[in-house]
Every structure is written in structure tokens, then in C-alpha cells.
Amino acid sequence: RLGSVMAANGSSVTPGMGEIIQLNVGGTRFSTSRQTLMWIPDSFFSSLLSGRISTLRDETGAIFIDRDPTAFAPILNFLRTKELDLRGVSISVLRHEAEFYGITPLVRRLLLCEELDRSSCGSVLFHGYLPPPEKFDSVLPLKTTTRKTSPVVDPRKVLIIAGHHNWIVAAYAHFVICYRIKESSGWQQVFSSPYLDWTIERIALNAKVVGGPHGDKDKMVAAASESSIILWSIQDGGSGNEIGVFSLGVPVDDLFFIGNQLVATSHTGKVGVWNAVTQHWQVQDVVPITSCDTAGSFLLLGCNNGSIYYIDMQKFPLRMKDNDLLVTELYHDPSNDAITALSVYLTPKTSVSGNWIEIAYGTSSGAVRVIVQHPETVGSGPQLFQTFTVHRSPVTKIMLSEKHLVSVCADNNHVRTWTVTRFRGMISTQPGSTPLASFKILSLEETESHGSYCSGNDIGPFGDRDDQQVFIQKVIPITNKLFVRLSSTGKRICEVQSVDGTTISCFMVRECEGSSRMGSRPRRYLFTGQGNGSIQMWDLTTAMDNANKGEERKKEGLLQLLDQCDLSTSRCATPSISPAPSLLHHTRLRESCSRSERELTHTHTHTHAHTHYRNTHREKEITNYLQLFTFLILCLQSRRRLCFGYMAHITMNNTFFTITY
């Protein structure tokens, strides 16, 4: 009978098209028609039902498909209605499943949504792009020496990025390149070093050298590999000269500048210092070093014997008897644990009195301590202020800032934070430091990585100590995505993804003064070195401003809009905006939209009035019930019948009662 009716209407029924198909997807059963599964040609289902793909059936005879049933539900709904309801499934997961089933219209729709966030021009956070060096073989070897066998490093990728003021230096495997930013012209390449026969592991940059050999406009760049250090002097014009090659005698673990001094340290217990004024390189033996930090002109060393030592680099003091560096013990840990992390905070009082200093350090046992040097305790040294024993693994990082104390231990970068109470800029015990957050910054490393990986992929925290600081999370070694998180709470600020899809090989956060105009403030940028040799820049100031607003983009609204149009089969960036013929005709679509707008406007206008009327009406009904109940009691007591006048009054207020006495 059904076939005859459809034949009368000019349609025909293809044999088997109305057949009910039973599916078992990952243990969940679905029932649908053959026509629903076959309307997309060359899909998984058309091949399955036509016999081109072998089928596996369960005990009930249903076709078994070993896929996720949760993701299959919105796909089957799309095949039925040609509309998409995510049903809580992420777009990436749904696209992956749609590609497996060969649902081409759905794949196009989901790809368009994903491509909106993957523009080759980046998002609002993307700030700039420095292309790879033109020729990696344009610099020739100057010398050849025998080096120990080390992991092979891709010569094209950026290994480390360092910065100082408005300058940055990028280290590749065998040379470095310096860039400078100007307000009018942006970032410009200034210097490219000659070829080095050894692979760079550490770099340092000083963009403001006072009293250098060529005046106060000198810039200095240093690079280290194993025990060797090479130092260049760069002028504003871009010309550079090699100052010299120095040897620490042992592998260099840290390389940095303190004023005019280039400092290199090794965990074996050696400190190397080069002074820009005296042009002298000196190596000093100390206790094995487990941590270090700088504060002004001071270099502080945390050692494995539980002591903290300091050297005043401004005076460059030398002992008269043997011309060695004057290394002074500042504090000794009460538990004799190795000082594995060190952070020095100079309060505003330091610039006035010069003898107020706060130091936070972590130990190999997981303890976190804060010591304070008061003006009245200069003779007796720093005093122990606070102790926290919340870590069960050695503390690897610590940061004491104006508002927070942050510590990181070796247990997958477990972070603990506290709020710091200050009075007139100085740390206070009332009410004292209170726990704030506990979270992890998971960052996996390769089993055999080059020595440059740790220095080029340091998680932080980054930022000035009187401002909000951030962690940079690189979850896996080979990835094109980074996460920026607040160091105080672990809140995710933003997600950064390479605009060209290349692997991020290193990163760094710096503040740059892009404008000299009055009232302009430095902006914070994230620099990412890429596997293809390029450098990409991201505006973290804007990211933090947006995070404070709590903005969050939604893709579900876009998918609902796309349900009203068919996407072109071409790879054109602009989809066809014609309505889907399978959904609505042109006139019905316009009428539906206009009617929806009118209904929405009417509902919005009268919602408040309707709510007020409903509440008032309920109050009147309650009053009538109370009046009627009181009247009944009086009638029962006096044995009188109800009068019709009162019943008429109740009827006028939409309440009618029939009472038999």
C-alpha cells in the first residue's frame, strides 16, 4: 500500500532503501534506515552496506563498529536531519570521527570552525614574525677543534632566546643573531656571528654596557658550550668584534651578566668572571653550587653544604693576599640541607638604606624558608623569618615577589604558592604568609636532549617581581602549542599556537618599551623560537587583560548558524551562503527569521509586565481563599446558609465555589 501511494505521487521505492539497519557502535545499539546511511556517496556506510567492506556482526545480528558511541550519536543525527548538535562532544573529536566515517559535508563544516582559530596571520595575541636566516651555510667555519660526542642538533631550529631591554639574541646550533626593536621600524637584525664549530648551549646578552671599551653604547653577547665561552662586542651600527674566548675548565651551567661583568658558574664549584673595564677573566673555586640568583650588583650562590654565599660584583673585590674573589658566607641552613633554589627580593627600602634584603630559598629536603636582613641586624646577618615544609621532593625553583611566594619541586613541577603580607613595602608577620594555591606545570622532556634544551625551555616564572608573573607550559617536547598560566594561581591565561604549524623549540618572556611617548608603558611579549628557524612574538599584555575580563569564545553558536547553509565543496575560504534545500525554502527561511525576531522582541518587552501580573494575581487568589475560609467558619457557627452576594464576589475574582450545607 505504501509503495502504491508513493508511485501515485511520482516517487518510487528502491528495493532495500527502507530497510531497518541495526548497528552496534562500541557496545551501544543504534537503529536507523538504510536510506539515512546511504545518502552520502563514498562514505564508510555506503561501502559497508554495498559489500565493499566486510562486516562483523554481534550475537543479535547487528553490524558491529568498534568506534566511540558518544561521538557517533551526533554523526547519526546529522545523517538523519542534516543538522549538527554537538551533544557535549568536542569539535576536534567529532571531526576525527567524521573523517573516519567519510561524512564529507560534516567534515567541511567542522574544518571551517577550526580554521577560524588557525589563521596564518595569527590571533589577536600574535604580534610579529621574524623569518629564518636566509642561508644557514652563509657563515663559514673559523676553526676546528675536537669536541665530545653529543646529541645531534638540527642546525635550522632556534635553540635559545635571550633578551635585555629592547634587544633579543637567538642562538642556533652554530651561530647567534641579534635583533633590536625601534618604534618606527620594528624589529631589525643587527648582528650575526661567525660560524662556531661547537653547538651552543648557553647565551647571555647585555644591551647596556657602561664603561665598555667602545663607550657606553656597547652591547655584549656571550655564548657557551661545555667549558668554552666566546664573547662579542656589538655597536649600534651593527658591527661586532670578538672580545675573546675563555675557558671555565668545567661545563658551564649558568651564563649571565651583572652590570659590566660576565659571570659563568658550574655545579662543580667554579665561578668565572670577566670584567668589561679591566678586560680580565678570572676563575674562582668555591663549594659545589646547586643554585644561584642575582640582586642588583650582588651574586648569591646556594651550595650543597647548606650555605648561601654572596659576591659584590660592583666593587669586584679581590683578596689582597692571593688576588682571589672575596666570597662571603651570608647564611647557613639550620638543617644543613643543600640550597637547591634561591630568590632574592630587594624591597623599596633597599635603595634608601642599602641593607634591607629578603631571600627565599628551597632545599634538597623540600623545605622552603624565608630569611630577612633588617637594618638593625646587619652585624648578625639575616634572620630566619618563615619555614614551609609542604614539598616532599627537592625544590627546583623559587620566586619571592611583592605579593607572592612561589615554589616548585621536582615532582612533575608541583607548585605551591602563598600570599605575602607587606607593611610599607617590607614583609610582615601580621597576618603573615597564607597558602594560596597548589597545582602542577607538567612539562615532559626528551630522554636524551641537548644541553641547550633546559635553558631554552625554562618554565619560569617570568615577569617583574612587582607585577603578575607567569609560567610557560610546554607539555611535550615536540609541539606547536604553549600554555601561559599565572604563577600565583595556575589559572590559564591563554593558549599560543604557531601561526605556521611549525614546532616550538624554545621560548622566552620579556618586557619591551616599544614607544617612547609619554604615558606609554612597556608591554610583555612571549617570544617563541621555531623548528624552521623563525621567531614568533605574542602580546601577553593583551592576553592578561582579556583573561581578567573572563572572555571565552564559543563555537556552538557558529555551528547553529552553519546549519542554515550548504558549504561549498571547494577549498574556498568563503562558504556558500545559500540556504540548504534540504532544510527550508527561501521564503520559509525569511518568514521564520522575521517571525522569530518579532516573537523575541515581544517576549522581551512583556516579560517583566507578565511576571508582575502573575504575582499580583496569586496574591489576590490567596486573599480570596482566606476570606472564604473565614466566612465558612462564621456560617457554621451561626448555622446560616451562604449568601449569593459573596459567591458573586468570588466569581468576579476568577474563583468559584459550590458549598453544600
TrEMBL record:
GO terms classed as biological process: protein homooligomerization
Coiled-coil region: none
Keywords for this protein: Cell membrane, Membrane, Phosphoprotein, Repeat, WD repeat
This protein's name: BTB/POZ domain-containing protein KCTD3
Protein purpose: Accessory subunit of potassium/sodium hyperpolarization-activated cyclic nucleotide-gated channel 3 (HCN3) up-regulating its cell-surface expression and current density without affecting its voltage dependence and kinetics.
Family under the similarity heading: Belongs to the KCTD3 family.
Annotated localization: Cell membrane
InterPro entries membership: BTB/POZ_dom (IPR000210), SHKBP1/KCTD3 (IPR047876), SHKBP1_KCTD3_BTB_POZ (IPR047825), SKP1/BTB/POZ_sf (IPR011333), T1-type_BTB (IPR003131), WD40/YVTN_repeat-like_dom_sf (IPR015943), WD40_repeat_dom_sf (IPR036322), WD40_rpt (IPR001680)
Assembly information from the UniProt record: Interacts with HCN3.
Organism field: Scophthalmus maximus
Transmembrane segments: none
A single Gene Ontology CC term: plasma membrane
SMART domains membership: BTB, WD40
Main location class: membrane
Stretches assigned to the BTB domain: 19-88
